[in-house]
UniProtKB/TrEMBL annotation:
Residues 90-263 form the NADH:ubiquinone oxidoreductase intermediate-associated protein domain. This is Complex I intermediate-associated protein 30, mitochondrial. Belongs to the CIA30 family. Part of the mitochondrial complex I assembly/MCIA complex that comprises at least the core subunits TMEM126B, NDUFAF1, ECSIT and ACAD9 and complement subunits such as COA1 and TMEM186. Interacts with ECSIT. Interacts with ACAD9. At early stages of complex I assembly, it is found in intermediate subcomplexes that contain different subunits including NDUFB6, NDUFA6, NDUFA9, NDUFS3, NDUFS7, ND1, ND2 and ND3. Interacts with TMEM70 and TMEM242. Its main location: mitochondrion. It is found in: Mitochondrion. Keywords: Chaperone, Mitochondrion. The gene is Ndufaf1. It comes from Polypterus senegalus.
Length: 287
């Protein structure tokens, strides 16, 4: 197991932060609960009006994607994209911005943790709050509990084709947050080649100061380390910045009680003072 630079948590505790993030909430079945054998066609909502709206939506997205090939990414000239130094990816100013995110907790596996996401009183920030409970469900199989997660939704294009965030022009993740002193784990999921890599994720620690003042956090992408099923991998690779799927926040510090995290914006920037390519040792295989 390799060492984590500048990390203040023991590597064994990382499992509690990351492994729950990759649990699929919809397909998880608690021990003792019979499987859902409902035929797939019975779960389809046959609604003509929604179908027409869906066709208009997806053909509109298709038209936009086709014209962007001539205009440039996001409808901007390529020169402007190449010279871009900062980009705000998520801002929380209305209810539509919250719909780009999903929250989950150990309730999916029978736990008692609660998590909520809403706009703040002035509708200018997102407030993530709830209560963490480490009480293990008494099902005879679950051994760990106590996590809460916020994660961005996968970008989808025309006809629900998967698209990605392209952050290849930047080297640093920027967060403007206000927390309560609890440590969080930042999770970044990238596109993978093979099915067995679906649980691969890049992680780094976020330490909030607490108090009434805002905290500007800059985390270089070179500091993110690779995990799978919540376990740190010996074979490390740099983050694949042009194929970013989702970004998430996970709380699992084993401390029962309320928590809150206020988020103003999330962006990326190009810090020219940071020249490190990758912070961790990469092992070379024998020929």
């Amino acid at each position: 197991m390799f060492c984590l630079k500048n990390a203040r948590l023991h590597p064994k505790t990382i499992w509690h932060f990351t492994s729950y993030e990759i649990l699929p909430k919809l397909c998880y079945r608690r021990p003792g609960v019979p499987p859902d054998n409902t035929p797939p066609w019975k779960k389809i909502d046959f609604n003509f009006s929604k179908g027409v709206q869906g066709i208009k939506k997806h053909f509109g997205l298709l038209k936009k994607e086709m014209f962007e090939r001539f205009e440039g990414p996001q409808g901007r000239p390529m020169r402007e994209i190449m010279l871009e130094q900062t980009r705000v990816v998520w801002e929380f100013r209305n209810q539509e911005s919250l719909e780009q995110w999903v929250v989950s907790s150990d309730e999916a596996m029978g736990g008692k943790s609660k998590i909520y996401l809403r706009l703040s009183r002035n509708n200018q920030t997102a407030l993530l709050y709830g209560n963490l409970c480490t009480e293990v469900p008494k099902d005879g199989e679950t051994r760990y509990s106590g996590y809460c997660t916020l994660r961005s939704k996968q970008l989808l294009g025309a006809f629900n084709a998967k698209t990605h965030h392209d952050w290849s022009n930047f080297n640093t993740l920027y967060l403007r947050i206000r927390g309560d002193g609890r440590p969080w784990m930042i999770n970044i999921a990238t596109e993978t080649y093979f099915q067995h890599q679906k649980n691969d994720m890049y992680n780094y620690f976020l330490y909030t100061r607490g108090g009434p003042y805002w905290q500007d956090v800059k985390i270089p992408f070179s500091k993110f380390f690779l995990t799978s099923h919540g376990r740190i991998q010996d074979d490390q690779h740099p983050l694949w910045l042009d194929k970013i799927n989702t970004l998430g926040f996970t709380l699992g510090d084993k401390v029962d009680g309320p928590f809150h995290l206020e988020i103003d914006c999330i962006g990326v920037c190009n810090d020219h003072a940071h020249t490190e390519m990758f912070a961790y040792e990469k092992y070379k295989k024998n020929p």
